[in-house]
Amino acid sequence: MSIWQYANPKKFMDTTGPLLPWIGGASLLCIVTGLVWGFFFTPDDYRQGSTVKIIYLHVPSALMAINAWFMMLVASLIWLIRRHHVSALAAKAAAPVGATMTVIALLTGAIWGQPMWGTWWAWDPRLTSFLVLFLFYLGYMALWAAIENDDTAADLTSILCLVGSVFAVLSRYAVNFWNQGLHQGASLSLDKEENVADVFYYPLLVSIAGFVLLFIFLVFLGTHTEIRARRMRALLARERMV
Amino acid sequence: MIALLVRDLRLAVRAGGGFGLGLAFFLIVVVLVPFGVGPESGLLSKIAPGVLWIGALLACLLSLDRIFALDWEDGSLDLLATAPVPLEGIVSMKALAHWLTTGLPLVLAAPALGVLLSLPQQGYVWLVASLAMGTPALSVIGTFGAALTVGIKRGGLLLSLLVLPLYVPTLIFGAEVARRGAEGFEVMTPLLMLGGITFGTLALLPFASAAVLRINLR
What pLDDT does residue A102 have? Predict the structure, then answer.
């Protein structure tokens, strides 16, 4: 038993297929619980009022936006090294999800920023690097869409993902240098003394778990769609031959 | 490799298009800016370093798809790939040729255009220094983008979409050097960062460019 047996598309489909509704259901349950708990059963912050509650959407989506890219990086490496097609397709399926998460994080941030900072947008390092990350997602998806041959597309996008990761990290620290921050620091770190208060922390954790499950669900679903689309193309090609 | 460089330079100069076009584009962008933001020299001198950097970057972008496209169409790229020279070296020479025909003229023309935007006196040295330090990185990164999109028909727009996010760190540090220079601040830190990016991309990115070129030629 090793993880590599799931590189077989059939094995992957058979294993994840029955799991899909469960993951989707668990994700829905977690998100609904987290949001309802967060929105209706936590006190207002003494300075930020009820606007603080957007944290239950903002933080999980921002977290997933970065982790989706990281997952794409790992999947790209697996494709480049071991050439498992499922891996390349999973990376492809993750990109639109990650891009959507980036947009959600930027939009919820803007909605929160308007009453709190008095502006929809500021050229703050975190905001700027998220915008740049969004551009990376766009380029990655555009390259997938532009190339007809599947294997070539997988190879090229994988290398773009590797190079892009380096430049994304570079940009992250370059914008730090370029402008001072307005965004608050991290308040969810495991190793820090002072974090966000427990009342807000637990519903946030539930919501984050929901977003992680949602991401896994969507990536699995997207990978399934891609595999089925490929099977269909193969069948059509075979029919034309006969 | 020297022969390849000479050939590329000769093609660029004699075939026309790429060589003068980038410069003309740079000039037009810089001339259009005062029409857009108004002619007050105080405002212009404040934004001059940034405008010059963005103009140089766009002019550089304009000629990127010519790096490989023509060689790809007439098949000489296949010959180059089978030549007894590592593909990484060929890619580096291509980038160098692009820099000599696009980046270097931009560096030399920048002070003249700085006059149009009333760049402060002390800014010229650092503007030229930052462009001279930064434009090689633009060429090398652009070569990677050109190698990625070489097989795609009408890949120009896609090329811009792929390359522009990669230009962010270079632009930040380059424009920062020029801005600090113009305002008379200390410029060493961003200049060293810019140099780090340039030499880092010079050392590493040709491998990625050669890898994608091999995939595209498969």
Answer: 92
A174 touching B, CB under 8 A? yes
Q: Does B21 touch chain A (CB under 8 A)?
A: no
Distance in Å, alpha carbon of B62 to nearest chain A alpha carbon: 18
pLDDT band at B184 (very low <50, low <70, confident <90, very high): confident
Domain annotation covers residue A14: no
Banded model confidence at residue B178, pLDDT cuts 50, 70, 90: confident
- Evaluate whether residue A174 is within a structural domain: yes
Cβ partners under 8 Å of residue B162, min gap 6 = A139, A142, A143, A160, B145, B148, B149
In chain B, the residue whose alpha carbon lies closest to the alpha carbon of A162 is: B208
Residues of chain A contacting B176 with CB distance shorter than 8 Å: 177-178
Q: Where are the domains positioned within chain B? A: 2-217
Q: What is the pLDDT of residue A191?
A: 59
Interface of B with A in 122-141 (CB under 8 A): none
Flag whether A151 is in a domain: yes
Task: Give CA–CA dist A69/A97, Å, rounded.
Answer: 10
Q: Which of B166, B173, B193 sits opposite A167 (nearest CB)?
A: B166
Residue A12 in any domain: the answer is no
The answer to whether B165 contacts A162, with C-beta atoms less than 8 Å apart, is: no
Do the Cβ atoms of B161 and A147 come within 8 Å?
Answer: no
pLDDT (0 to 100) of residue A101: 92
- The whole-number pLDDT of residue A180 equals 67
- Nearest chain A alpha carbon to B189: A177
List the structure tokens of A22. Answer: 């469960």
Kindly write down the DSSP assignment for every residue of A38-63, as one continuous string.
HHHSSPPBTTTBGGGGGHHHHHHHHH
- Contact between residue A109 and residue A127 where contact means Cβ atoms under 8 Å apart: yes
Q: Which domain holds residue A75?
A: 19-41+51-181+198-241
Query: Per residue in B40-63, pLDDT tens?
Result: 888 888 888 888 889 989 888 888
Question: How many domains is chain A partitioned into structurally?
Answer: 1
Residue entry with tokens 């402060």: B120
Given CB atoms, is A179 within the 8 Å cutoff of chain B?
no
* 3-class state of residue B118 by DSSP: coil
Residues of B in contact with A138 (CB under 8 A): 161
pLDDT number for residue A195: 61
Size of interface A-B (CB pairs under 8 A): 73
Whole-angstrom CA distances from B61 to A146, B103, B145 are 19, 10, 10
Mean pLDDT, contiguous 10-residue spans, chain A (242 residues): 74 84 88 83 69 81 89 90 86 91 89 79 80 90 86 88 88 76 64 64 84 90 89 89 78
